[in-house]
Write a structure and sequence with these properties.
about 200 residues; about 55% helix; globular; Rossmann fold
């Protein structure tokens, strides 16, 4: 079974992935942002590096999904393959930070890749307001994230909501992270676990 956790930068995807993996003894699949050779350059000059970083992420996520499909245990994944193509790349294009020819090239490649893999059995979307996201980003103190533009984050949030509103590739669970502080409040984490179990029971 494949469970993917989606959400904007700073929404708590990695934290929830870790907590669920530890709680249920599931196998985690983390997003390897710390080893991305384009990340620092991208945040310093988005227009120059937008296409490069999106291709890098697409390649990594496609490989992850292919690997996940080979496992028989429950995999919980930090971010889905859809988010780059449905949110991040369109946001860069809308902001004028990715050329149309690059965006069309990227979209064509994603369409081919996505046709070859199965959607997650359950998608968990972590919905958060901009102040909440900014607070989490500042709290974790990653140097390469210190230059993230506020309009960039806002654009991502708008596209996330549009994507989730039309998502119909599988079961969907929406978690409001402004209201459920699952990292510091075990009761809130318990609420999320109960909701996940209710969704999973419907998968069989």
């Amino acid at each position: 079974m494949h469970i993917a956790i989606a959400g904007n930068i700073g929404s708590g995807k990695t934290t929830l992935t870790r907590m669920l993996a530890e709680h249920y003894k599931w196998t985690p699949k983390y997003e390897s942002v710390d080893f991305n050779p384009y990340l620092t350059d991208f945040y310093n000059d988005m227009e120059r590096w937008s296409f490069n970083i999106q291709i890098y992420f697409l390649n990594k996520r496609f490989l992850d999904v292919v690997e996940i499909s080979k496992h028989s245990d429950i995999i919980v994944q930090d971010r889905s393959i859809y988010e780059d193509a449905c949110i991040f790349a369109p946001n860069l294009h809308d902001m004028g930070l990715m050329e149309t020819r690059d965006f069309e090239n990227y979209t064509s490649l994603f369409s081919l890749m996505s046709s070859l893999v199965k959607a997650p059995d359950l998608l968990i979307y972590l919905r958060g307001s901009i102040p909440h996201l900014v607070g989490n980003i500042q709290k974790r103190g990653r140097e390469y994230e210190s230059s993230i533009r506020l309009d960039y984050l806002k654009g991502l949030n708008v596209l996330y909501e549009k994507w989730i509103e039309n998502y119909n590739d599988g079961k969907l669970l929406i978690i409001d992270v402004d209201k459920l502080n699952f990292e510091e409040n075990l009761e809130d984490f318990g609420v999320i676990c109960d909701r996940i179990e209710a969704q999973m029971n419907g998968l069989f």
